[in-house]
Specification:
- The complex is a heterotrimer of chains A (320), B (300) and C (310).
- Chain A has 320 residues and is an all-alpha fold.
- Chain A has helices at 2-29, 45-55, 61-73, 87-122, 127-141, 144-158, 177-214, 217-224, 229-247, 249-266, 272-281, 285-313, 315-319; strands at residues 79-80, 85-86.
- Chain A has 13 helices and two strands.
- Chain A has a two-stranded antiparallel ribbon with strand order 1-2.
- In chain A, β1 and β2 form a beta hairpin.
- Chain A is globular.
- In chain B, α6 runs antiparallel to α9.
- With 300 residues, chain B is mainly alpha-helical.
- Chain B has helices at 6-9, 19-29, 31-53, 56-60, 86-122, 124-139, 142-152, 158-167, 171-185, 188-195, 200-211, 213-237, 248-253, 258-263, 265-299.
- Helices cover 37% and strands 25% of the residues of chain C.
- Classes of the chains: A mainly alpha (320), B mainly alpha (300), C alpha/beta (310).
- Chains in contact: A-B, A-C, B-C.
- Chains A and C meet through α1 of A and loops of C.
Chain lengths: 320, 300, 310
């Protein structure tokens, strides 16, 4: 098993290197360079050229790449020309918001998925199951952003139950109880909207896992021993079907990244997704590349995490 | 030469129906799929038919005397902030969204199938390298990278948009086809072709490919649904169709303006309903196809 | 000169493992096999499953990579032959074991049988169709069935289609890999007799791979017995069946059921005796790894793998 993990880790390193090269190429393709964010364009061109030389912008690409990677590892991702502050600092603020949003979404996802998946799998082909399956079916066909728009329209604007934008009521003292409550209040609608759609995958997966496990020999044995139905489910079926579902946790991260772009745009929630969108629109490219790089690494690590959990849960995978 | 003819007498003439027939039967039997199928046919012929008579320039022309009008006799679904007729935009938008959905599905299909087929057929080191590449592309934050490329590509058009989408969407299919091709290449008929001197590309495309047809049809249908959603999502964010080329996504994009979202439902709700119904219907047909091909597998 | 001459053929498959997926060992599927087949004769390769007989056949036709050794066909060395389109390859064809998977279910009989013709001969559609119809007739199927699909035929008929495809290019050597083991017993004899018929008509040479000694006795002139990638005994049909030397061969021969019920009791006693000898003397006949010893000549046409001291 250690062999599998080491091998999997060995694959991860080149993936991150490739990602960094891809992001670097993207950055090169973008109009303008690090300098355009720093200085007044009305300065004498000769002076600009001098600056370029000094900053190493005329170096061959591999030198620039190495410089870029070295400083990125040291936590220096360049300057945002729009906010006139280091990208690292900027991202730091936004990352916290996205982290809470992501966490809330994950919690809701599992709160919805586990009871629904279990009910649906345990009582398959009953009315209850059909209703739940119907929900997953429709959930698969509904684009997240359309659902979020409708949710915002109905619960945000028409009914007015939730705030329609931002991450916190302005003017509150950070750290105070009211501040935290306001934060949570702003999180709820976006997180629930996202969870209701992303959860259908997990519901369906859990359902089929339970239906599969139900017919396994060890379950039949447990029944034959005379264990009560409740006990069979609690001790045998759930335990064995929840583990593989848990393993998909890492892949959920990848899904969340796409989702936050839509959700944060729609709910004007100041996180990484919104930062990314604003930066693309305003051509603040050092921010754009940094966000892509970070989310790319997050995806790679998410997949790594899932593969490792999966290999712990399912020995068959290790053999591959 | 003597041999008993008894064997030729007992030709098992049991008709094994063709794939097309099974698919048709399964769709007709499944009422939901049938309705979905008819809906798709209806909508498709309607939007493509009507849009011949509609003048796109006429519809996207700004009319400052009819801004943000609610539905009326003149404008069945009202107008947007530029006084443009929503109903006309909806028709042309549906057509554009469908067209690009189909185009991207076909292009990713061709690339994905060819790549997966080659990877699975040759196997070994070739397969290993090709699949590591796919793995890498699959983990990338797809949406962000597409948005960045859309933002930085010079001379942006509908074509470059579909090319960018295609470039990052073929991997899932490649992986699926590859795993099936890996099984097929071990079968005797593929081996037999080699001993008969058939070149690799012919074995891949004339021998193995037909045996993957049902898998390809099912995946492409489900992909079409996903691609329609993806296009509308990207256009919604402002990184898909340009505004002078209406699509379902650009109509939905108006809802990024809180006032439109809150007060002028007629601009975005019809497009939202249309995207939802189209995706649902295409998925229904896709799922029915999946069941049909599974049924065929059961029958052998 | 023999049509096919195989000398010290080795086919090894690597076992990969470890963190970097490097080669950590190998399976010796075929480990130093030599034999030759005379023109117009049938050579039987016998062994249990996993003995390497199919691998031997497949490596001769180029489906498996040959690790070392030579395969000479008509005096030309085939090892290291890259071009599959060469005329030599055209002279060797194969009949596969499973008539269900060896015919592509998505293609019509016409396409299946004309596949080799399309690869090697440029002929018009009409000519091609005529050739296929002739071939179908030759294998005893109705020429009208060219537009049917394989699933519309029975197993025996499918195997005939496979044979039609194999003889389409008028090959000299046909490798028949358990051609009847997937068929009903009632159909087996028909197909085998038919194979003997076309052998005479077309002057074919067969490499006949089988695990069934009864069938091999019926079909073959010379026989090689394989065990774990090596030959344990080789000789003429008479030599092998009347005078088996190696205990492994004896055991196989003893296991052939006798049709005559009168002999049944005697046969049973003999089989038990051989089995007892096999259990007792196993270590004398195989080396420490359980593999056969190198072959030694015991008569003009009979070779046995016995240890040096005998």
């Amino acid at each position: 098993m250690w062999k599998f993990i080491v091998r999997r880790l060995l694959i991860t390193m080149p993936q991150i290197v490739l990602l960094s090269i891809l992001v670097f190429i993207m950055a090169q393709l973008m109009p303008g360079d690090a300098l355009s964010g720093l200085i007044d364009p009305n300065i004498d061109p000769a002076a600009i050229e001098e600056q370029r030389e000094k900053l190493g912008l005329n170096d061959p690409w591999y030198v620039q790449y190495t410089d870029w990677v070295t400083s990125a590892i040291q936590g220096d991702l360049g300057q945002s020309f729009r906010f006139k502050m280091p990208v690292t600092e900027l991202i730091g603020q936004r990352l916290v918001n996205t982290f809470w949003l992501g966490l809330a979404t994950l919690i809701f996802t599992y709160i919805i998925a586990i009871p629904l998946g279990i009910t649906s799998g345990r009582y398959n082909d009953t009315l209850r199951d059909q209703i739940i399956t119907g929900y997953t079916y429709i959930g698969f066909a509904t684009p997240l952003f359309i659902f979020a728009l409708v949710m915002l329209w109905v619960f945000g604007y028409s009914l007015g139950w939730f705030p329609t934008g931002g991450s916190v009521e302005p003017g509150l003292e950070p750290g105070s109880f009211a501040y935290i409550m306001s934060k949570i209040n702003h999180l709820l609608l976006p997180a629930i909207s996202m969870a209701l759609i992303t959860t259908v995958n997990t519901v369906q997966y859990l359902r089929s896992e339970i239906i599969d496990t139900k017919q396994k020999d060890f379950v039949l044995t447990a029944r034959a021993k005379g264990a009560s139905e409740a006990r069979v489910y609690r001790r045998h079926i759930f335990r064995n079907s929840l583990l593989p579902v848990a393993a998909y946790f890492g892949f959920e991260i990848t899904g969340l990244i796409g989702g936050t772009i839509f959700i944060e745009t729609i709910f004007s929630y100041p996180g990484m997704g919104l930062l990314f969108m604003e930066s693309v629109l305003q051509r603040d490219y050092s921010v754009v590349t940094s966000v892509v790089l970070l989310f790319g690494i997050a995806s790679i690590l998410g997949a790594l995490l899932s593969d490792i959990i999966l290999s712990l849960v399912d020995p068959r995978i290790r053999i591959k | 030469m003597h041999y008993t003819e008894t064997e030729s007498m007992v030709t098992n003439e049991e008709k094994v129906p063709s794939l097309a027939k099974i698919i048709w039967r399964e769709i007709v039997r499944d009422k939901v799929a049938l309705i979905s199928f008819l809906f798709i046919i209806l909508i498709t012929s309607f939007v493509y038919g009507i849009s011949i008579f509609l003048n796109q320039d006429e519809i996207v022309r700004v009319d400052l005397f009819a801004i943000n009008e609610p539905p009326s006799e003149n404008f069945w679904l009202g107008t947007d902030y530029g006084g443009r007729d929503i109903f006309g935009q909806l028709i042309i938008g549906t057509r554009n969204s469908l067209s690009i959905g189909i185009l991207v599905t076909l292009m990713t299909g061709i690339i994905g199938v060819t790549y997966g087929l080659a990877s699975g057929y040759f196997g070994g080191t070739v397969d290993n390298i090709m699949m590591r590449i796919v793995d890498f592309f699959l983990i990338l934050p797809f949406l962000m990278i597409v948005i960045v490329f859309v933002a930085i590509v010079p001379e942006y058009s509908v074509w470059t948009f579909s090319l960018i989408m295609t470039a990052f969407l073929w991997m899932g299919k490649a992986r699926l086809i590859r795993s099936k091709a890996l099984q097929e290449r071990e079968l005797d008929y593929a081996q037999a072709s080699k001993t008969l001197g058939t070149p690799h590309w012919k074995i891949m495309f004339l021998q193995v490919l037909p045996n993957l047809s049902s898998l390809i049809i099912v995946t492409m249908t489900l992909n079409l649904a996903a691609n329609i959603g993806l296009e509308s999502g990207l256009s919604f964010l402002g990184f898909g169709f340009p505004e002078d080329t209406p699509s379902l996504g650009t109509l939905l994009g108006y809802a990024r303006n809180p006032q439109t979202l809150e007060l002028r439902w007629w601009i975005w709700v019809p497009a939202a309903v249309m995207v939802f119904l189209l995706m649902l219907a295409v998925r229904n047909v896709g799922e029915a196809l999946k069941r049909a091909t599974d049924a065929k597998q059961r029958r052998g | 000169m023999a049509l096919l001459e195989v000398t010290d053929l080795k086919v090894h498959f690597p076992i990969r493992g470890g963190i970097l997926n490097r080669k950590i060992g190998e399976i010796k599927a075929v480990d130093g096999v030599s034999f030759s087949i005379e023109r117009g004769k049938t050579y039987g390769l016998v062994g249990e499953s996993g003995s390497g007989k199919t691998t031997t056949g497949k490596s001769i036709i180029g489906l498996n990579h040959i690790t070392s050794g030579t395969v000479k066909f008509d005096g030309v060395d085939l090892t290291g032959f890259k071009s599959e389109k060469s005329d030599i390859r055209k002279d060797i064809q194969m009949i596969f074991q499973d008539p269900y998977s060896s015919l592509n279910g998505k293609r019509r009989v016409l396409d299946i049988i004309s596949e080799p013709l399309r690869n090697f001969e440029k002929s018009s559609k009409a000519e091609e169709k005529k050739r296929v119809q002739e071939l179908l007739e030759r294998v005893g199927l109705s020429p009208e069935s060219i537009l049917k699909y394989p699933h519309q035929f029975s197993g025996g008929q499918r195997q005939r289609i496979g044979i039609a495809r194999a003889i389409a290019l008028k090959p000299k050597l046909i490798i028949a890999d358990e051609p009847v083991s997937a068929l009903d017993v009632s159909v087996q004899a028909q197909v085998l007799n038919f194979m003997q018929d076309i052998q005479k008509d077309l002057n074919l040479t067969y490499l006949f791979i089988s695990h069934d000694l009864g069938i091999v006795k019926h079909m073959c002139d010379e026989i090689g017995i394989m065990y774990k990638g090596r030959f344990v005994e080789e000789g003429t049909k008479e030599g092998i069946f009347n005078n088996p030397q190696h205990i492994y061969t004896k055991r196989l021969v003893a296991a052939i059921p006798d049709v005559n019920p009168v002999n049944r009791q005697r046969q049973k006693v003999y089989r038990e005796k051989v089995e007892e000898e096999y259990q007792k003397n196993y270590n004398d006949y195989f080396d420490q790894e359980g593999l056969a010893y190198p072959l030694r000549q015991i008569s003009q046409s009979h070779l046995v793998a016995l240890p040096q001291k005998g």
